[in-house]
UniProtKB/TrEMBL annotation:
Entry annotated with the keyword ATP-binding: yes
GO molecular function, one term: ATP binding
PANTHER family: ATPASE DOMAIN-CONTAINING PROTEIN, DNA-BINDING PROTEIN-RELATED
Keywords carried by this UniProt record: ATP-binding, Heme, Iron, Metal-binding, Nucleotide-binding
Species the sequence originates in: Luedemannella helvata
Domain Cytochrome c: from-to ranges: 174-325
Recorded superkingdom: Bacteria
Keyword Metal-binding: yes
Name by which UniProt lists this protein: ATP-binding protein
């Protein structure tokens, strides 16, 4: 079939042609938006799951829902060792600009922009005092054409400042009977102080009923990080685990886009595609794309899937698995290979005990702590429960077992 008409889209954060299996999450978010708009109390939201399950796609979809309801929105991607101040100021600046046309008194918008500027400029001041990128900090400006506020969100204490910033931004949204939604991808990469500040700010907003919510997305251990920062975070956020698609949703993700192009799948082809992809949305798109390109005609058969599978696997090996494997040091690769060997029986990327990893390598657990901690920081593994580790990428253990041994 014509590759130009291929409807499948395997890509990082790229919305698939058919967003299957996420209706429940979207419907629940619409209720949250409506409740907040009516002054009802609601919690902020945290999406968790492995790589490739579509967290970023869902995050973008939820943002689109908020925009449709004329909410102010902003989105950031957290990064390790990066302060929250600049990105959150930029996201709130965008949200306020979206609300500005609905505000009758422009001075109120300027007041909030002044607070945002004070909050963000405080980051540059702090960098200069530490001697970190002093000249860049001095030159950097947030692009807000109003004077920075004085005495508001500029104390230097991120927890105090973020509460004040969110409170003022939420008050502006309330004045036009709407709200603000801030979307944070890779939320597990926030620094400890920023996590604490975010929890404190959301806690304050929930108590006052202010119309500002945070929608975060991150790896499965994100709830544990939030709980370690503030014990009340277990009750502060609504947690939604985003997992692989069930069989009906995975079939819909393949069949619906093909049908719009006048193409059908045989039942056995869908069986083979689900077995290969495991229902993970990224893999569904990758195998669907390769199968389309290899199939000579409609309907697509199981034989077409078998012919195309090696190409899909080769592409995943380079772009999805290989790029992550290359980021690891030799010691970290050795640790991951030991994990993969322990997971061989189940072949399901199940958590494995760290003590068993150490035993497989003939080492003491304490001597492996640097490699384990570095892998967690790089987002290659996570520790959902004390004494266990698991891969953040589905099928990664299977990929590692297919690679030649390290010499």
């Amino acid at each position: 079939m014509e590759p130009v008409r291929n409807p499948y889209a395997p890509g990082a954060g790229q919305r698939p042609p058919e967003l299957a299996g996420r209706d429940r999450e979207v419907d629940a978010f619409e209720i949250v938006l409506e409740r907040i708009s009516r002054g009802r109390p609601e919690r902020s939201l945290v999406l968790t799951g492995l790589r490739g399950v579509g967290k970023t796609v869902l995050l973008n979809t939820l943002r689109s829902e908020a925009i449709t309801r004329q909410w102010g929105t902003g989105k950031i991607e957290a990064r390790p060792d990066q302060s929250l101040r600049r990105p959150i100021a930029g996201a709130l600046h965008m949200a306020v600009r979206e609300l500005a046309p609905h505000v009758s008194d422009p001075s109120r918008v300027d007041e909030v922009l002044g607070v945002i500027k004070a909050f963000s400029v405080r980051s540059a001041d702090a960098a200069g005092k530490r001697g970190v990128a002093r000249s860049a900090a001095a030159r950097w400006q947030p692009g807000i054409d109003v004077p920075a506020a004085v005495g508001r969100a500029d104390s230097g204490d991120i927890e105090i400042d973020l509460v004040e910033l969110f409170t003022d931004a939420a008050a502006l949204a309330a004045s036009v009977a709407t709200g603000i939604a801030l979307f944070i991808d890779e939320m597990q990469d926030l620094g400890a102080a920023d996590v604490s500040a975010m929890c404190a700010a959301c806690h304050e907003l929930s108590q006052t009923g202010a119309p500002l919510i945070v929608v975060g997305a991150g790896l499965p251990h994100l709830p544990a990080l939030l709980s370690a920062s503030k014990s009340y975070s277990e009750r502060l956020f609504r947690y939604q685990r985003i997992d692989r698609l069930d069989r009906l949703a995975a079939d819909r993700a393949l069949v619906a886009p093909a049908a719009r192009e006048g193409v059908e799948f045989e039942a056995k082809a869908l069986d083979a595609l689900y077995e290969a992809s495991g229902g993970y949305p990224y893999f569904v798109q990758a195998y669907g794309k390769a199968t389309w390109d290899h199939a000579p005609r409609s309907p697509i058969t199981a034989a077409d899937v078998r012919v195309a599978a090696p190409e899909a696997e080769a592409e995943l090996a380079v772009g999805f698995f290989g790029s992550r494997y290359e980021r690891a040091t030799p010691a970290e690769r050795e640790y991951m290979r030991a994990m993969a060997g322990l997971d061989a029986a189940a072949d399901a990327d199940a958590p494995v005990p760290t003590a068993e990893v150490a035993r497989a390598l003939g080492r003491k657990p304490a001597s492996l702590s640097p490699a384990r901690d570095s892998l967690i920081k790089k987002g290659l593994i996570y520790s959902g429960e004390r004494g266990t580790v698991a891969f953040t990428v589905p099928h990664f253990a299977r990929y590692l077992r297919s690679q030649p041994p390290v010499e």
